[in-house]
């Protein structure tokens, strides 16, 4: 009488092959997750600049961070929500060490927005900083430097 099925050796080979595939795939998935955080962060930095420019253009003055943009910002040097105050400096993406990836400083009187690196050194922070490199400068939304 012949029985059909897999031998123990065949099952062990399949398990070993699946283990090798998992060992290769898991680090790739972790890197993909970081890449997604970096892409989202760079997009949100661009959104903050665009939102603040639109707000200043419409209102003629800068307001509270939470009124100008829906992107989650934190007050520099703290963890409180930036929507509750008229602070001129806010941070984007405060990492697990408390370091800021990107720092925004606004001038209420002339509509300038300065975007600089916040000092964060995690892989996600450095990725966001390099992805948003073309946005790290002084944006002038009003004042005498605007030409028509």
How are the SSEs ordered, and which strands pair?
Blueprint: H1 8-59, H2 65-68, E1 73-75, E2 89-94, E3 100-106, E4 112-117, H3 123-131, E5 138-140
Antiparallel strand pairs: 1-2, 2-3, 3-4, 4-5
Helix pairs in contact: 1-3
Please summarize what this structure is.
The chain is an alpha+beta fold and 148 residues long. Helices cover 44% and strands 17% of the residues.
Structure notes:
- The protein has 148 residues and is α+β, with helices and mostly antiparallel strands.
- It has one domain.
- The protein is built from 3 helices and 5 strands.
- The protein has helices at residues 8-59, 65-68, 123-131; strands at 73-75, 89-94, 100-106, 112-117, 138-140.
- A 5-stranded antiparallel beta sheet has the order 1-2-3-4-5.
- α1 (8-59) packs across α3.
- The longest helix has 52 residues, at 8-59.
- The radius of gyration is 24 Å and the shape is rod-shaped.
- The chain starts with 7 loop residues before the first helix and ends in an 8-residue tail after the last strand.
Distance between the termini: 94 Å
Number of contiguous helices: 3
Number of domains: 1
User: What's the total number of strands?
Assistant: 5
Query: Biggest sheet: strands, sense, closure?
Result: 5 strands, antiparallel
**Which word captures the global form?**
rod-shaped
Q: Summarize the amount of helix as a percent range.
A: 40-55%
Q: How big a fraction of the residues is strand? A: 15-25%
Question: Strand pairing plus helix content: what structural class?
Answer: alpha+beta
Q: Averaging pLDDT over every residue, what do you get?
A: 80
The low-confidence runs, each spanning 5 or more residues with pLDDT under 50, are none
